[in-house]
Amino acid sequence: MIRLADAEAIAAIHNHGNEERSVTFETRPQRPEVVSDQIAHWKLVLVSEADGEINGFARAGSCYHYYDGIAEATVFVERSARGRGIGRELLAALIEGASERGLHKLTARVFAGNEAGLALFSSCGFRTVGRHERHGELEGEWLDVVLVERSL
């Protein structure tokens, strides 16, 4: 069960990712109460902790009811916790949990310039299936998004 304190930590980690402008087109800060409401709609959410503090999260969610067996995977790791395998552990657990819940595929959209993100998904068995060119604008620059997926 995700607690409000977890939603606060998830929002903070997500907001750090927003500030870096390397993982999402979202630029508005996420508020914990909004994240708490969103969690109810996600198919699965996992957190990583060290010394009682959340240092990363992964979620599988879908915006469309007609893609019921498919979810989009997202992984965020706190800056200070990167490079320790936390993202890979979270994504592996997300894959396992999604499979246990009867999902048959996970997808992700990764900025083409996010080499660490692309390597993470590749290391967990995702394959590149396409690319959206100039898919979104971020601070005046049009960015490409690489589409990856993994059948479960």
Brief overview, please?
The chain is of the alpha+beta class and 152 residues long. The protein has a domain at 4-107: 3-Layer(aba) Sandwich (Aminopeptidase), CATH 3.40.630.
> Level of helix content?
25-40%
User: How does CATH name the architecture of the domain at 4-107?
Assistant: 3-Layer(aba) Sandwich
Nearest-angstrom radius of gyration?
Answer: 15 Å
Helix and strand sequence: HHEEEHEHEE
Q: Tell me the number of strands.
A: 6
Main sheet record: 6 strands, mixed
For the residues shown, what is the average pLDDT? 92
Under CATH, the homologous superfamily of the domain at 4-107 reads Gcn5-related N-acetyltransferase (GNAT)
| Apparent shape | globular
The strands making up the biggest β-sheet line up spatially as 1-2-3-4-6-5
Strand content: 35-45%
Give me the number of helical elements.
Answer: 4
